[in-house]
Specification:
By secondary structure, the chain is α+β, with helices and mostly antiparallel strands. 32% of the residues lie in helices and 26% in strands. The chain contains seven helices and ten strands. The longest helix is centred in the middle third of the chain and has 19 residues, at 88-106.
């Protein structure tokens, strides 16, 4: 019940974006988290489509009930911070200071990638607290780049500083947000799925005209083929596919 309330029930409608997301927990309750938050409140659903949106993905160290409860706490803190409209690096800085005492007492850390997107300018700003860097497919160049900035995990150092990156997106560009449950999955021989395999899989899919949901489904299918019939995930695995139309 906690896990189902933690993650969005559905993807929001953002102008010019095809969005898909899914989390596959390793246990009944996990520490993976993704969210979509409109930075404007008290406006109509139609106006929200063209407003600025925050997109976030994170992972609490460990899994099970403690990880799930900590991520629930962080979700509440983050949702309050988002409404300040501050740049991504400031959001992570403030979130770290708010949460560090609770995280320190639990002996857990959190990786988190925070970004905001403006449909009117097609600009994405982002900041990373040591999470797996999202993969950006640049359609015009037919290649994949990593979206990353320097930054410590949340809960490690009170005065940790974070950096802000910015990129202007174009038609048919795509961003894959994911957690390490994808790349850390392993097969019967102990071989890991790893980032390179994910990059190669994504590049092949992006060269076709698949929807975001189709790309998400095909990545999980590839993961299932890799781990095998009796394979199971050692960690929660989450994917968000963000594609410009």
């Amino acid at each position: 019940e906690i896990q189902s309330q933690l993650l969005p029930d559905y993807c929001p409608i953002i102008h010019g974006i095809d969005l898909a997301a899914h989390c596959r927990p390793a246990l009944q309750l996990g520490g993976d988290y993704y969210d979509f938050m409109c930075l404007k409140t008290n406006i109509s659903e139609k106006r929200k489509e063209k407003a600025k949106w925050a997109l976030v993905i994170g992972d609490v160290m460990g899994k099970g009930i403690p990880a799930g409860l900590l991520m629930t706490m962080l979700r509440g803190m983050l949702r309050a911070e988002v409404l300040t409209g501050l740049p991504p690096d400031r959001i992570l800085h403030d979130l770290n200071q708010l949460a560090i005492n609770d995280l320190d007492q639990s002996h857990r850390f959190v990786t988190l990638f925070y970004s905001d997107y403006d449909p009117r300018t097609k600009k994405l700003r982002y900041s990373n607290a040591a999470h797996n860097p999202p993969l950006l497919w640049k359609h015009s160049e037919q290649k994949i780049l990593k979206l990353d900035t320097e930054g410590l995990v949340l809960g490690l150092q009170k005065d940790a500083q974070y950096c802000c990156g910015e990129i202007k997106l174009s038609s048919k560009d795509l961003i894959l947000f994911y957690t390490d449950g994808i790349t850390d999955a392993f097969n019967a021989t102990g071989e890991r799925f790893e980032e390179d395999r994910l990059i190669n899989t994504l590049a092949k899919l992006c060269r076709n005209s698949y929807s975001s949901q189709e790309i998400l489904n095909k990545i999980f299918k590839k993961l299932d083929e890799f781990t095998g019939v009796n394979g199971h995930l050692q960690d929660d695995a989450s994917i968000v596919v963000f594609q410009l139309k």
